[in-house]
Design a protein that fits this description.
By secondary structure, this protein is of the alpha+beta class. It has 1 helix and 3 strands. Strand 2 and strand 3 form a beta hairpin. The N terminus is likely disordered.
């Protein structure tokens, strides 16, 4: 049996967009017990157990990306 729930995102939440970052839109996606930050530019952060750390990864991407 194949566990689809572990492969598909279960929830997404938009992170705050700083002014001037219209070409970057980030979301956090939960996969099992991990949370992953992704951006529309193709960037993605590492899988994190803490949602807050995934959001921090997304914020850092906006500052440096």
């Amino acid at each position: 049996m194949h566990d689809r729930a572990a492969q598909e995102p279960t929830a997404q939440e938009a992170t705050a967009q700083p002014s001037g970052a219209s070409d970057h839109r980030t979301t956090t996606t939960e996969r099992g017990s991990f949370c992953l930050a992704r951006c529309t530019c193709g960037w993605h952060g590492p899988a994190r157990r803490a949602r807050s750390q995934a959001r921090t990864d997304a914020e850092q991407h906006h500052r440096t990306g």
